Amino acid sequence: MRYYIADCHFFHENLNTQMDRRGFPDAAAMNDYMIRQWNRKVRDKDEVVILGDFSLGTAEQTNQLLEELNGRKYLILGNHDGVVKRRKFRTELFEWIRPYEELHDQKRKVILSHYPILCYNSQYRLDRDGAPSAYMLYGHVHDTFDQRLIEHCGAYIRSQSRTVRSGEERTVPFQLINCFCMYSDYTPLTLDEWIEKSALPHPWPAPTSHTPETSA
After folding, report:
1. Which of 40, 80, 37 is nearest to 62 (CA)?
2. Which of 46, 105, 182, 188 is close enough to 71 for a disulfide, judged by CB 3.0 to 4.6 Å?
């Protein structure tokens, strides 16, 4: 089984009170919860593609973390993955580390980048049933204003149509999925699970159990 997840930010203390407002008491509690959620789903022979910003810990901390997490792990580099360049980091704990990749997942092309790509490879490709056969999975924007912009762009792009070689008029596919870890309660998901979640009317509820109280 292959899973995907983005922007775990292990050891990133500030995300409990800033931007994500994850609401854990500290980074240690956040790390422990994310490890439990990961290992509850992922088995040793499974694959997990991490779409960037995996760990802000030291090389030694990140090495230990990778040994605790189940599965064969692959890293798409994000802007907060400088740990992989440190001398004591064990790169062999990842199957590979790349800035960009294209894979196939059950006969569907999957475009993998930390940063969202609005015009991605094979965007217009459909399967025999007319369903999209290419998906662009990304991270980076978390659940921020930038994600709202992408959603707005997506709605506009899907409202457009173009004439294809056969002369048929088709709407423009837009299959971008933000695999932000909070959208799945810090659990890696399969492509089908991410597709199902992205199709919901309100697909991105952040978990409430760790959210700090706010004033009225």
Report:
1. 80
2. 46
